[in-house]
Amino acid sequence: MIIIGTLLLMLPLSIVSGQSLSFIDALFTATSAACVTGLVVVDTGTYFTGFGQAVILVLIQIGGLGFMTMATLFALLLKRRISLRDRLILQEAMNQSSMEGIVRLIRKVLIYSLVIEAAGAVLLTIRWAFDMPLDRALYYGLFHAVSMFNNAGFDIFGDYRSLTVHVSDPVVNLVVMFLIIAGGIGFIVMSDLVEFRRTRRLSLHSKVVLTMTAGLILAGMAVILIFEFTNSRTLGPLNFGGKLWAALFQSVTSRTAGANTLDITGLRQATQFFVIILMFIGASPGSTGGGIKTTTFTLMIGAVISMLRGREDIVLFRYRLAQERVFKALTITLLALLLIVTVSMVLSTTEGSPFLMILFETTSAFATVGLSLGMTPELTDIGKILISLTMFAGRLGLLTLAYALGPKQGKPLYKYPEGKIIIG
Question: How far apart are the first and last CA of the chain?
Answer without folding.
Answer: 47
